[in-house]
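Comment thread on ticket #2218

A.B. wrote:
> Attaching the input chain for the structure job we discussed in standup.
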Amino acid sequence: MPTTLGTGEHRYRVVENFAKLPDGWSLTDVASVAVDSKDRVYVFNRGDHPMVVLDRDGNFIKSWGEGEFSRAHGLHIDADDNLYCTDDGDHTVRKCSTDGKVLLTIGIPNKPAPFMSGEPFHRCTHTALSPKGEIYVSDGYGNACVHKYTPDGKLIKTWGEPGTDPGQFNIVHNIATDADGWVYVADRENHRVQVFDGNGRYETQWNNLHRPCALCCCGGGKQPNFVIGELGPGMAVNRKVPNLGPRLSIVDHTGKRIARLGGEQGPGVETGKFLAPHGIALDSRGDIYVGEVGVTDWKTSFPDTEMPAAVRVTRCLQKLEKV
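C.D. wrote:
> Ran it. Output below, let me know if you need it in another format.
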């Protein structure tokens, strides 16, 4: 029988062996995913073919980005199917067409800003767009802030600093917006999602999360839901503690949890378990695509176990089909 996760209206069937790649290809870590208006799935990964494009059944369509990207991290797609590719290896955001043509580059390749300077970028992580097309960039590992840009890439403002208080960040890892222009930031190592207005004014925060890593706003209405990918334990002392993830949580627009998928018994390659959810996207039918950085995270979760070959090939991409 197929494995099903979730409860009630939020039940999902795990599609095994989803990605069908050309012989000899590997995805390695899948940092992020996006789905276009034709339900084509863009898989931003750290293998030899950084952008792999699949149909909704997992069949290979094409690839691009070879030699273009240093280290895939974030991927966002707009209403016109333009892709915003965040590369934390060379500290840039590239806006690309669906065939890989670079339309805009924000940041100077391979020239990071000083560590924790607040200047863009030092290992930026993700992007999101305002209803007016303004670009928000979470910045990320070597900074602790969010930058706001005009649609053509001119810096408008920056907010945030290291810390644990409201408006401060400890690894600002992902970012999303809704139709009203609210900005949602996955503040990973502070175990929360912070909510801001479009100008960076702190509004509230969502707690009871464990290392929120992936963040996806579902639907463009006034009261959208969000799917949050949570990492499991990152320290040896709590590595085997149950009920800490990795998992997916579905919350409403106020941050109230309405469903949880997996994570009760820790990470694993077994069907129904996750390794390290890092990027999430939904298609037109409500199916969930999960990109995972299982290769990078393997030694954290399984320091004494050899990594199965499947993790490097296709296991870092999962599809959950809505029931």
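A.B. wrote:
> Thanks. Noting for the ticket: The mean pLDDT is 97.
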